[in-house]
Amino acid sequence: MRKTYLLLSLTLIMAVLLAACQPAATPTQSPAAMATEASTQPKMTEATSEEPVAETKLVVWDQFYRGVESEVIDQLNKEFEESHSGVTIERVSKVQDDLKTTVKLALSQEDGPDVAQVNQGRSDMGALVQADLLLSLNDYAAKYQWGERFSTSVSSRNSFTADGKAFGEGNLYGVSPTAEVVGIYYNKDIFEENGWKIPNTFTDFEKLLADIKAKGITPIVFGNLDGWPGIHEFSSVQHVLVDGKYINDFTYGVNNASFDIEQNREAAKIMQDWVDKGYFSDGFMGIGYDDSAQLFKAGQGAMMITGSWLAGELTTDADQQFGFFLMPQQSTDKPQLAIGGVGIPYSIRKTTKNPDLAAEYLDWMVSPRAAQLWAEARFVPAMPLPADFKIEEGSLFADTVNAWNVINRDNGVGHYIDWATPTFYDTISAELQKLFGKEIDPATFTANVEKDYSAFLASQK
Amino acid sequence: MVGRTLWPGESRLKGWVYLFPGLAIYLVFVFYPILETFHASFYKWDGFSSNRTFIGIENYRNLLGDGQFFKALSHNLIFLIFYCIFPILIGLVLASLLGRRPLPGMSFFRAGLFLPQVLSMVVVGVMWRWIYNPAFGPLNLFLKSVGLGALNRSWLGDFDLALPAVGVIGSWVQYGFCMVLFIAGMQRIPKELYEASELDGAGSLRQMIYITLPGLRAEFGVALITTIVAALRVFDLVFVTTRGGPGDETLVAAFLVYRSAFQQNRIGYAAAVATVLTLVIFLVSFLILRVQSRQEE
Amino acid sequence: MRKPYRWKSFLPNYLILTLFLLVVFLPIFGVLLSSFKTQTEVIQGPFHLPREFQFNNFVNAWTTGRFSDYFRSSIIVALAVVSVSVFLSTLTGYAFGVLSFPFQHILYFLLLIGFMTPFEAVVIPLYHFMYRLGLTDTYWALILPQIGLSVSFGTLWMTGFFRSAPQELIDAAAMDGCSRWQMLWLVLWPLARPAVLTLVVLIFMWTWNEFLLALVMVQKETLRTLPVGLAFFQGRYTADVPRLAAGSIIVAGPIVLVYVLFQRYFIQGLLGGAVKG
Question: Which of A130, A282, C58, C164 is 20 to 30 A from B39 via CA?
Answer without folding.
Answer: A130
